[in-house]
Amino acid sequence: MTTKFLDVRDLEVSFATDQGIARVLDKVNFSIGPGEIVGLVGESGCGKTTLARTILGVLPENSARISNGVINFDGEDLLQKSSEELSANIRGRVITFIPQDPFTSFNPVFTIGTQIMELMRWKSPRRDDPQYVNSLGKILNIYPRARYKADYQQVLEQLREVQLPEPEAVLAKYPHEVSGGQRQRLMIAMALLPDPKLIIADEPTTALDVTIQAQILKLLRQLARDRNVAILFTTHDLGTTYEICDRVTVMYAGQEMEAALVDGFFNRPSHPYTKRLLESLPNQEHGIEGIPGDIPSLINAPPGCRFHQRCDYATGECSVSRAASTEIGTDHMVRCYHPVSRPKTQTEAAS
Amino acid sequence: MSAQELDDTIEAATDRPILEIQGLKKYFAIRNVWKRRIGWLKAVDGVSISVQRGEIIGVVGESGCGKSTLGKALMGIHQPTGGKIVFEGNDITHLKPNQSRELRSQLQYSYQDPGASLDPRWKIRRSLHEPLIIHADLVHEERDQRVHDILKAVGLPEGHLDLYPHEISGGQQRRVGLARILTLQPSLIILDEPTSGLDVSVQATIINLFLDLHRTFKLTYLFISHDLSVVRMICNRIAVMYLGKIVEIGDTKNIFKNPRHPYTQSLLAAVPEIGGRKITDDFWLEGEPPNPGNLPSGCRFRTRCEKAQPQCAEIDPPLRRDWPGQEVACPLAE
Amino acid sequence: MELTRFLIKKLVEDRVALLGVMLIFALFLAAFFAPVIATFPADVAEFHPKNRLLPPDDTFWFGTDRMGSDIYSRVLFGARITITIAIIAIGVSVLVGVPVGLIAGYYHGWFSEMLMRVSDIFLAVPQIVLAIAIAQTLGPSIENIILALSATYWPFWARLVYAETRSIQNETFVEACIALGASPWRIMVLHILPNISSSIIVRTTIGMGGTILTAATLGFLGLGAPAPSPEWGRMISESREFLPMAWWYATVPGIAIFLVVMGFNLLGDGLRDILDPRIRRSVSHDD
Q: Is the ipTM of this complex over 0.95?
């Protein structure tokens, strides 16, 4: 993959907690190509949600601090932008978000239609179109009737596209009157309405039943292809990753470990953590094994690679520094001093 | 340990199943604003399962299918509306949990998050002693001994006894929750969603723990879960539930190789299989389950079933036993 | 217990709550050591008309009252009365209200409803009117003040405990105990009660302040023990005819009441902040 649409470099994010400063993201590198569906995989505490939130620019102001890094999106560094600009032009327009929990994403006292049209008021692709509004209108933030009608039609069309039957009826309902699966479809619709270039989906199917999940995954993949939208898909479920993603990046305790195309990731995993992860999936042929130990504290994180304490292949250097990103195959990067695709040498086995 | 090895370790089935569920029903009243009952939510509507000693039987289904309610009704947390539960030959259908203690101590229930079953203000030692104080007539030293033995069996250090639940990790809390149940030396444990929400590597450890305990203590499990890949791995029989009824029940191997009920087929098709065909390409099940308070006539699945015929609206199909080790509630299955 | 150690540590950190603790401590000290630190301990009962209404000076630190008794000493002994009333009234309220709330909250059905309706009835009775009625029938005394206060205060605890019990009931660990076969008694007393104790503690602390205030009001109305009882409210009432000249007569007991009530309120607020896990101040980076 040559062009990087979203390129995160050396990102460092920390949170202040009662017990100290937690270094939640430790010089993370991550990228997405245009129109790609990239899975960000990891277990709890790996930092995938924080990474997603940092890209969106919605970290809690008081306790989170971005101490280093660049987020290149479509040529510009998002971290250099003011929060007003991010809020007005980037978030909800060019980059949209599908949250994990469909049950709490809507305001319970307003109808769905009211809430979606409120979204359109600020984030419609027609917002700055001179055909609908002049500069005075822009200053006064009016919502012209003509634009409202056009937006409304687009909403209906979008609801049909996410396979919600009877869109007008749905718009008149309150959030508690529709099911979880339907709400998630609505979230997808709302993520597509502003005509974004990147959708960040934070575990969008985790809370759903497996048959509904299958429907939603199918829908998402199709829409992403049709609209040529890139998706950043965070999940802890490797099966979902296999279903929908083109590329996968796996994280552990705030560090990215391996990034590869889906085929390479599942068939030729290279990082010891990836291997252990895949080996712990339930299967028929052989037994499964967990990984002994616990994830290290992010407050007193061990130096070097944060997996080294639980790794079978770790040597002295692993606890001092992290390996640089090495390319070991087409579009397959790993950060490890002992990638497991090659056998242990004599010296390594001895130490 | 694979399912095959598991089959081999099950003792020859004794004459009497350890647990017999006969036509169990649990209905919840739906009331309007004036507290008048306007309908029934038939959470469990006529479920019959015969559980053999030593087996691990899975109960699977999606939300609203009634599997959790089934588990709680078996324990007496919900009082059954109809049907019969026979445990070790005794009718326990209408017993409350604090009645008939010896029976109840043999049948235990593990929550989805066993750590949440611990009182946050109690030290772990106290929480582990409690079941024995309630049920058994042991002196303090004897209780202590049992607790220590159990701690070892679940792989926890003794130092944990003096800690509070919030001072240990989630995985360890789970082990404590399990230990608590095991102090009573139960013969049957109902495991309710034991691997939900767990990281994959932690899940693997817990699964191995369950299998170890099953072997060590000669337990029987009723394994309620929505995670089919886990169920496939450790259960030797599976019951698939949909809207309160069992639509298919049989040996794990048979059901996964050859699901016959249309719902089972779509359920299995929906599970992502790494390395296999992508479900998203040809998954056909559409729509959502109907409102459980207002079920369709006849077969409950007919509104979403691609094979539905007019006759499906007439009668609610019973389980057919036309195949070895597999029963299906669909007249059109083959 | 580990929780109390944590509590004490947090309390010490909260300056305002610490002030409350000190004020309350001063109250208890005053009451306990009254015979020792009073300058004229006999003045609780004796009177010396020739010393009446003297302003504060070296001998009589807070001046004298209309009977010539040293106000400073009387205030100290008055602290004993204040504490007695507060502790007994609150004690009874808690001992009656908490079990009622627990039982009504744990069980569902007509009995629970009935208990709560009874508490509603007591809640509707105005304290002062009830105190007057009791005083009229049984004669004014400290015991009657305590009776009137207890009878009207216990429903507050019943309601609080009822609400908390109902909400804790649905927690997993309670359900797990039920599944384990624990008896209702065990669940209510050993499990639910400890987990709702923080609300009870906060309510009780703040309730002390309110009780003392109300007791002073009742004393002011003359419903408490008759003269020469050094009850603070009564002292203020006596001072009325001599104001504004003998300003010390009303001010000193008034300030005593003020400080004590404020002490309990500050402590109660501090405890609530510590014990309520939902109040979290946001933490920020230092540099």
A: no
